[in-house]
Structure formats: C-alpha cells, structure tokens
C-alpha cells in the first residue's frame, strides 16, 4: 500500500487575527530606507510596550560604542559554470566539529560561518574565503568572554557591518546579546541586550530584527529605536524572514498557534495570519520582494507556497512520502524555482507556477463512453492516497548528499545553479536542467534512467520473474517508459517477447517504493503513454484516453485513425492543456485546446502522418508524412501553415521531431542516419502573409530550357528551407533527438544504445561538433574516456 501523505490539507487562511492571538501593536510609521545607515554615538533605552514589565525576561537594552558608516564591499567577480552532476565542491577550513552556524547573505553571493573560535566569510562563485576573524580570549573592548564561540553571524549584503551572537561551549559574547560588528575597525561598535538567549538575527538596510524564544523585536537601523515587538509560538530555531527589496517591509514569523505563520506588512499597516499546516511550522522562506512565502511543517513531506499579501495557497510541492526535517527553503530571484534541503541528504528543486491555476480553468468534457473501463479495480487499494499524492508537484531536479547532515541552500547568480553549504564544512555549487535533462530506456530486463548533461546513469531497475506485488509476468520486458519530469513517478507498459507486465496495462511506478502503486487496464495493447503533472494520456491503436492525474478520473476520449506508433503530444507548461494526435482522416492531425474548449483539425499532408511534435507551450506543431521529405510547422491555435522545411529529396522515415525551448530551431532525425537542425521563422508568416515580390526583369532568363522537364518540381524544391546544421550517424538505426540545456546543443539517443551530445553553429552551419559519445548498454568500464 502506498504510504499516505503525512501532512493534511491546510486550514483556510485566516485573514484577521484570531481571538486568542495577541492583538497587533499600533501601526508603525514607515521610515524611508537609508542605504547602510550609521549607528548613533549615544546610548538609547528602547521604550517598552505595555506588556514589557520589569520582571519579563525578554526586555532589552541598547548601547553604541562609536559612529561608523557601513560601506559596501566590492562584489567578487563571478566565474566558472557548475556541472550537472554536482559541479564545484570545496570545504571551508574549519573542521566540521568546530562549526556552530552557517547562513547566506541577502543576495546569496556570500555565506558566513560561525565557529568555536570566531567567524569567517566566504564568496560563493567562485568559491574563496574573503576573510576570517579568530577572536581571542580577551575579546574586543573587553566585551568578549573566555572563548571565541560565535553562534550567529548575520551579514548585511557585502558591507562591513555584521551582527554576532556568542555560541557554543565557550561563547565569545553572552548568548543574550547581539553585537554590532564593524569589520573596518575589527571590533564591536554597539550591542543589543536581552534577558533571554537570542535565537536569530535578521538584517536589512533599514531594520534589525532580533528573534528570541517567544518574541521578536524590530529596530530601526538608523537610530536603533524599537519600532515593533511580536509575540510568537515557541521558536527555538529562531525562524524569521524579512523582505530585502527597498520600500515596504514584509516580515514573516511563527504565529501564536501551531502551524500558523504571521505576516507583517509594514507599508500597508496590515497583519495577516496564515494557517499553513496542521502540525508545527519547521521552516519557511520569503521571496526577496516579499510576495511569496514557502512553508514546511515538522512532517517535512509537503512544502506550500502562499501569496504573502492575501494568504491564499498558490501551490503545493512534495519533497517525499516519508517524514523529514526541512533545514532550508529558498526562492530563485526570478520566482521560477524553489530549492529545499532536508535531513534526507537530497537537495530538491521545484518548478513554481505562481501565476497559473493548473486545472481550475479546465472544465470536464462531456461524459465518455460508459463501456470503456476507467480504472482497474487494483487501484482501489490506494484510492485514498492518489489524490493528494499525485496532485502535489514533485521536484524537477535533485542533488544527493550525505543523509543526516544539515545543509542550507540558495540559488546562484549563474542561470540554473544552486549553492549548498553544510554543517560538515562542505560547499557545493551545482547546475540543474529543468527540461530534456533525462531519458528513459526500456529493456528486456527492466528499465534505466539516464542524465543527459553530463551523461550518467541515474538508476536502473532490473525486474525479476516474480515481479512486484505479484503483478509482473514471466519476464522483465518493458516496452514503454514515460517519465514525469525528474520525479519518482513513472508509467510503465510491458513489452518484448517476455513482458514484465501485460501490454494492455499502464502501471504507475513509484521509485521511492520501488514498486507499482496502481494500474490502468484496457482491452487492447497500449501503444504509448504521455504524462504531465495534471494528466495521464494513454494511446491505443484507434483511441486515446485522457485521465486527471489527481483522481485518475477519465475526462476525455478521442477516436483516431490507426495509430500503431502511439503518436501523441501534450503541452507541458502550466495552464491550459493542448493535446495533438492523429485525426480521423489520412494526413490529418487533431488539436485539442482544453482551456478554450476548442478542437482544431489540420490537414497537414496528403499522405499519412508519420511523426509530429508540439512545442512546450503548445503554440507550434511540426508534422512529417510517411514520405519524409518535408516537415511543416503550423500554428496550433489557428491551424495555418507557418513554415515548411526540407529534410531531403528522397523518401525517408522520420523518427523524431523536437523544438528548442526558445522556438528558434527544429531538430529532425530519420532512417537516413542524419540529424538535421533547421532555423525557424515563427514570427513571420512565410507562406500566408507574404505577398509576392515585384516581377523580376523580363530580360533575365529564369530557368534554362534544359530544365523544362522538371519545371513543375523546381519551385517547391527550391522554395523549401534546408537545414543549417547536420550530424551524421549510422543509416538505418532509429534515433530520437532533443535540444540540450547548453546553448546550441543537441542530445541524440539511439535504439542501438548510443548517446551523443553535439553542438551546432547557428551562423556558419555545417557539420555539428561531437561533444560526447557513449553506449549506455555497455558497462561503464567499456566506455571511451
């Protein structure tokens, strides 16, 4: 039985403070942000609020030693690129047992390490130590204690001002004090004192936020005036986040109730309470602009993303099915990705869909044929698990480290890079590929998953004769393997002479459990399967079935022309779904626009359609017929022809078509053994809107009389677009093709077990440059070095 999700659905967001929450303090007048303000030269006693009695152990005092003006240190130049398999790794000098604290600065370009003997600051890209301060027993200004332990180091971007709190067995400063350190003077210039230990500090250029066990104090940086204090639930981790962009301040902290987060919008003078989880909040993150909040509970299975202003749930992503302690959450600057680290030792990267409701606009189509089986009875054992389990988003990329270690994570300045810092003293910089990053291979004995760049086997599953759950047949043959991005859910169909599963069943495989957790049964063999995060599409010889992934409900079925290859394509970007399949007539393709509730038929060719491709966003369709000489590109919405490209003059069987992500190129593979790359001109109506040019000079001969016997062929032959780049392989072999993550690269996978990665020159064209070549069916020891 599938492991049920541990985290229940969230309670509805509470737009107003609940009765047993402490009332919010009087509105705070917003002060204009001042870049890196100087500290005052005089001592200041903050004015306590009404509940700040002398007996409270959370009262504070403030002192300042001298005046200074923090100046921003010059940013170190970024260099180098991370590899997809793990990239750069470095180990900061302190031994792991000496580390007490690690944290990134506000722009994630640096990180700070507190140790038993002081603190150190490191640059992330390229990795290097910027400086270290080993604090002696005497201390600075006579303030330091008998040791050098620093338990909290908070940077202010890259300037010379830091906040320090003593920690460890021999703290350098009392753990109930926040010391304001000026590294230009190599000494403390002020302090904030409290009656209980400080759990955390957050800085921005106009605020200092100090986190205690049950309280948070917000100070104005310009004059160290206390402007707000907040009562929280017990907060031993010192959880708190504050927006960093200039302007209105947004602060997030634990609420007074279990599972609740409190959001302070200081510019709008508004407090929002979000009931994020039913169990205690273990970790949260706030985007730089203060618009999005990501939260995780102590169960650690789900991460939820909320609108900070309204408190509504925008998306839910799943780290895994088993409990875990979430250590770190981080948004990318462009708000496209979320990174998560936990005690399971795996860094996960999730796609965010913050502007689109995945299935809210898609209304179910008319009821399908009642005679068609919907779901095999064998799915009943997980019917309570599937909705939550499949509705959650799974990560698109993972990076595996040491289980049990504590890591924090942030997105790097280079595109699609992640920086990871561990309490074991490790530093990693890695790169992920959100699209076309993997390929799957079904074999006579099971299936295997490979990473494309760099090429490596991720895992393999050799299925024995007994099968899993007693479902498997007498062999291990897998004829169809369909991945769902990079998550642990796959669709499998048995194949070959000794299929592991019946060829008329689609098995839902959970690789976390290494077994099937459900199946879809049909009365005829399955020809293909397509997955997206909210749909399962099953292709039979003459029919296509579309299921909702959340509850496996059949929402649509389509009659097609005979389709032995299982041709079908579905858009992958969030939002309205576009599905392409063969039409009922020869040479026709059918386009289903589910969001617009519209069906479009395109008469693409006069002979049968042999292959087609759909762009990720569902805007463009490329089609090829059984003749294989021409490939045509159509507008999916209107069905008009946009461009025609020519593979060659002789017949060929087209095996694969692929659009580049930027829609600038189209790749084609065929039985002729040559990979072609074509330039696309999708913003220009090549054959629909272009009027003929003025008539040429009649005195100039157009075609030699000797060509008259092919005068009907030449116009089409020369008008077609020819490929700009080619890569020649073995004729007769079957290859599939996709564009790589690196600019102008193509990945090619063959049924002979070959893998190629090559690069093309879009300006000069010609033969592509081979970057990698492997045979993934051979042992790694036999591969070229």
From TrEMBL:
- Where does it localize? Preautophagosomal structure membrane
**Compositionally biased region (Gly residues):** 79-88
Checking InterPro entries in the record gives: PROPPIN, WD40/YVTN_repeat-like_dom_sf, WD40_repeat_dom_sf, WD40_rpt
Matches recorded under SMART domains = WD40
SUPFAM superfamilies tied to this protein: WD40 repeat-like
Gene Ontology cellular component list: phagophore assembly site membrane
Q: How does it sit in the membrane?
A: Peripheral membrane protein
Biased composition, class Low complexity, residue ranges: 57-78
Keywords assigned by UniProt? Repeat, WD repeat
Q: Which family does it belong to?
A: Belongs to the WD repeat PROPPIN family.
Record-linked PANTHER family = WD-REPEAT PROTEIN INTERACTING WITH PHOSPHOINOSIDES WIPI -RELATED
Name the chain's protein: WD repeat domain phosphoinositide-interacting protein 3
Q: Highest lineage ranks of the organism?
A: Eukaryota, Viridiplantae, Streptophyta, Embryophyta, Tracheophyta
């Amino acid at each position: 039985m599938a492991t049920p999700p541990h985290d229940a659905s969230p309670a509805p967001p509470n737009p107003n403070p609940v009765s047993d929450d402490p009332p919010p303090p009087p509105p705070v007048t917003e002060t204009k942000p001042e870049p890196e303000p100087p500290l005052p030269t005089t001592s200041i006693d903050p004015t306590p609020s009404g509940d700040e009695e002398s007996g409270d152990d959370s009262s504070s005092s403030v002192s300042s030693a001298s005046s200074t003006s923090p100046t921003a240190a010059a940013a170190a130049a970024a260099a180098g690129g991370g590899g997809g398999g793990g990239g750069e790794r470095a180990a900061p000098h302190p031994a792991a047992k000496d580390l007490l604290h690690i944290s990134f600065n506000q722009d994630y370009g640096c990180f700070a390490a507190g140790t038993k003997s002081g603190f150190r600051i490191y640059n992330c890209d390229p990795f290097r130590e910027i400086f270290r301060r080993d604090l002696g027993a005497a201390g600075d200004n006579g303030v330091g204690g008998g040791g050098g332990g620093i338990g909290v180091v908070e940077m202010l971007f890259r300037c010379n001002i830091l906040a320090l709190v003593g920690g460890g067995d021999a703290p350098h400063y009392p753990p109930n004090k926040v010391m304001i350190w000026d590294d230009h003077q190599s000494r403390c210039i002020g302090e904030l004192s409290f009656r209980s230990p400080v759990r955390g500090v957050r800085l921005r250029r106009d605020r200092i936020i100090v986190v205690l066990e049950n309280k948070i104090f917000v100070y104005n940086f310009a004059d160290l005036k206390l402007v707000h204090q907040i009562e929280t639930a017990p907060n031993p981790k010192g959880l708190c986040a504050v927006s960093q962009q200039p302007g209105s301040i947004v602060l997030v902290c634990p609420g007074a109730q279990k599972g609740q987060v409190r959001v302070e919008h200081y510019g709008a003078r508004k407090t929002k309470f979000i009931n994020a989880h039913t169990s205690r909040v273990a970790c949260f993150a706030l985007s730089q602009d203060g618009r999005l909040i990501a939260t995780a509970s102590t169960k650690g299975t789900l991460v939820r993303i909320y609108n900070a202003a309204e408190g509504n749930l925008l998306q839910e992503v799943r780290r895994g099915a088993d409990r875990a302690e979430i250590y770190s959450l981080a948004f990318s600057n462009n708000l496209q990705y979320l990174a998560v680290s936990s005690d399971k030792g795996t860094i996960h990267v999730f796609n965010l869909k913050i502007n689109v409701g995945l299935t809210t606009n898609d209304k179910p189509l008319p009821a399908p044929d009642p005679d068609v089986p919907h779901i095999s009875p064998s799915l009943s054992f997980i019917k309570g698990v599937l909705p939550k389990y499949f509705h959650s988003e799974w990560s698109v990329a993972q990076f595996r480290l040491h289980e049990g270690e504590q890591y924090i994570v942030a997105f790097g300045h280079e595109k699609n890079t992640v920086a990871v810092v561990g309490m074991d003293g490790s530093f990693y910089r890695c790169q992920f590929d959100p699209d076309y990053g993997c390929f799957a291979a079904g074999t006579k004995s099971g299936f295997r998953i490979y990473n494309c760049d760099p090429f490596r086997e991720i895992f393999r599953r050799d299925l024995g004769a007994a099968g899993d759950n007693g479902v498997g047949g007498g062999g291990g043959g897998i004829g169809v393997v369909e991945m769902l991005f990079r998550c642990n859910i796959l669709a499998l169909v048995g194949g070959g002479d000794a299929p592991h599963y019946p060829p008329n069943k689609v098995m839902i495989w959970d690789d976390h459990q290494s077994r099937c957790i459900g199946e879809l049964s049909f009365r005829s063999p399955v020809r293909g399967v397509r997955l997206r995060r909210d749909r399962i599409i099953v292709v039979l010889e003459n029919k296509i079935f579309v299921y909702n992934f959340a509850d496996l409900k059949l929402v649509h079925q389509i009659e097609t022309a005979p389709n032995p290859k299982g041709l079908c394509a579905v858009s992958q970007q969030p939002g309205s779904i576009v599905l392409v399949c063969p039409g009922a007539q020869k040479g026709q393709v059918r386009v289903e626009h589910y969001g617009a509730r519209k069906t479009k038929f395109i008469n693409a060719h006069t002979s049968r359609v042999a292959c087609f491709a759909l762009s990720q966003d569902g805007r463009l369709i490329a089609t090829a017929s059984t003749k294989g000489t021409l490939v045509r590109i159509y507008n999916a919405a209107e069905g008009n022809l946009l461009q025609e490209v020519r593979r060659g003059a002789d017949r060929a069987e087209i095996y694969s078509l692929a659009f580049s992500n930027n829609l600038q190129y189209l790749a084609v593979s065929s039985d002729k053994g040559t990979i072609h790359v074509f330039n696309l001109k999708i913003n220009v109506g090549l054959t629909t809107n272009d009027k003929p040019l003025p008539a040429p000079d009649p005195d100039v001969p157009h075609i030699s009389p000797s060509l008259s016997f092919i005068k009907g062929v030449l116009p089409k032959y020369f008008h077609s677009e020819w490929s700009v780049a080619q890569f020649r392989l073995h004729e007769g072999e079957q290859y599939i093709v996709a564009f790589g993550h690196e600019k102008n690269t193509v990945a090619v996978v063959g049924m002979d077990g070959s893998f190629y990665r090559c690069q093309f020159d879009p300006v000069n064209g010609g033969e592509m440059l081979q970057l990698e070549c492997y045979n993934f069916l051979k042992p790694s020891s036999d591969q070229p070095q």
